[in-house]
């Protein structure tokens, strides 16, 4: 239940992000960062990850938010998103012919992944979509949304 | 789907494709160069040994994610890298070794990787230095070891001349071309004998793919020929459904698959592979016009010399690999090997030894190192994917993919169980032309992400 509320919050945040995407570049960045930070804060208290069998302590995002010394924050979801780079290009900028992911909204990426997941004949993308928890989908989607 | 049919109807030429892309506004082709930030908060000296799929990716992402204060030296002895991926397609003449050759100049120019062409002869983990042939010592804060794989010698093939005459071609290069020429020189009704080593080895589907590609070429060009596949394993190691279908249907009557055949030796005089069947305990000589024995594999000598081997194969005692913590790819023994990361073929982490997944290992490793270098810790729950396409004929391919998540208890990656008893892994339902086209797209992008 907590998870559903988290997703709803993220959904609305990514909506805000998409809304300001057409405006100033700096604004887009700031929105992406605040989305990531918000997700980080929320996921730190969320226990969904434990249920998937990965880990119950010190989530991904908890570590990034505790580095006072860091000049910049490591974007949440960047490493997860890099799972797509081999086919969709570095930072989702393709040169091989598969779809571009850079700049897509998080909700678009998540809904696409869920679509693949639901298709019995979804091919290679179905398997990939099945490989992430819903929270991980949002994290990687939010990373792509922060890119141009 | 619709678009694909449309393209085929048009007879998709390259120009036609480009026009289509523009018209549909998707599948954009870019030459994206990721920026290297001036300062991410991370600083330090990282040495990467090896410039293959794992090493090149690690070097790139250490710079892109670490920024300009993370100095990266990539030490590689070879003047260029020859892709093992797709090298089976050299055997049927659809690709060439020169076309599979990559250089590191873009990693240098675009990302500021310092490339050193040299041989590393020693690693001093306590002193945190590597020694180059010639005696020069280079210090590091973090070391990434990605030297590829080593091959055991095969009894009967003790000399370099004999090894050149009976090439395994499991390290793409001149020997791949030699093997291609030997296949071309076969008569109709000839026999190609290949062996598959006990797992684990580099690229689990690779040998079965090779059997298919060679069978396909022989069928079309040297009718009546046979491919005898002698597998040390009790059955097909990867893409079992696809290769069973390929062996029993697509290449029926050409491929003869024999599991549980343990390679004893090669007799270069009578041109025969000698095996013992591990179930029946019978020994047999398999004569061929061309022999392609693929040797058993292990971590390269540099890791053995450094005392870093800590993982044996099942039912064996001799350690041959380096078990790492898949959260960061650090050696498990951080007391004796602090700040040492091992990625690619020699690393044991619960995932297959293959080029695509090696680039993901490299990114997890690079992310962990750049976090360490800013006084942080690695992410606790990395995800990685393994994916590959295998040609089954000159124009069809199948695929295999699996998703892995970190298991903190074993510190290894585990196939992700998305529902009870259901794992996020799968293979193609059919080998077809669409998959072959996807394979080519995948390869172009994989190499661009790694070397450009």
Detailed description of the structure:
The complex is a heterodimer of chains A (148) and B (452). Chain A has 148 residues and is mainly alpha-helical. Chain A has 9 helices and no strands. Chain A has helices at 2-20, 25-44, 48-51, 60-65, 78-81, 85-88, 106-118, 123-130, 134-145. In chain A, α2 (25-44) runs antiparallel to α9, α7 (106-118) packs across α8 (123-130) and α7 packs across α9. Chain B is α/β, with parallel strands linked by helices and 452 residues long. Chain B is 29% helix and 28% strand. A 5-stranded parallel β-sheet of chain B has the order 5-2-1-9-22, covered by helices on one side. In chain B, β11 (191-196), α8 (206-221) and β12 form a beta-alpha-beta unit. At the A-B interface, α4, α5, α6 and α8 of A face α3, α11, β24, β25 and α12 of B.
Name its key features.
heterodimer; A: 148 residues; mainly alpha; 9 helices; 61% helix; disordered N terminus; B: 452 residues; alpha/beta; 5-stranded parallel sheet; 4-stranded parallel sheet; 12 helices; globular
Fraction of residues of chain B in helices? 25-40%
The ordered string of helix (H) and strand (E) elements of chain A is HHHHHHHHH
Q: Whole-number radius of gyration of chain A?
A: 15 Å
Taking strands numbered 1, 2, ... along the chain, how are they ordered across the largest sheet of chain B?
A: 5-2-1-9-22
Query: Roughly how many Å apart are the termini of chain B?
Result: 30 Å
Number of helices of chain A: 9
Shape of chain A: globular
What gyration radius of chain B follows from the Cα positions, in whole Å? 23 Å
Mean pLDDT of chain A: 67
Number of strands of chain B: 29
Uncertain runs of chain A are 1-70
How many H/I helices of chain B?
A: 12
Map the helices and strands.
The complex is a heterodimer of chains A (148) and B (452).
Chain A: H1 2-20, H2 25-44, H3 48-51, H4 60-65, H5 78-81, H6 85-88, H7 106-118, H8 123-130, H9 134-145
Helix pairs in contact in A: 1-2, 1-9, 2-9, 7-8, 7-9
Chain B: H1 2-10, H2 14-24, E1 44-49, H3 53-66, E2 70-76, E3 81-82, H4 88-91, E4 101-102, H5 105-111, E5 114-117, E6 120-124, E7 129-132, E8 137-139, E9 142-145, E10 150-151, H6 160-165, H7 174-184, E11 191-196, H8 206-221, E12 226-231, H9 240-250, E13 255-258, E14 261-267, E15 272-277, E16 283-287, E17 290-293, E18 297-298, H10 301-305, E19 311-312, E20 319-325, E21 330-331, E22 340-342, E23 347-348, H11 355-372, E24 383-391, E25 397-407, E26 412-415, E27 417-419, E28 422-423, E29 425-427, H12 433-451
Parallel strand pairs in B: 1-2, 1-9, 2-5, 9-22, 11-12, 11-17, 12-13, 20-23
Antiparallel strand pairs in B: 3-4, 6-7, 7-8, 10-18, 14-15, 15-16, 19-20, 20-21, 24-25, 25-26, 25-29, 27-28
Helix pairs in contact in B: 3-11, 3-12
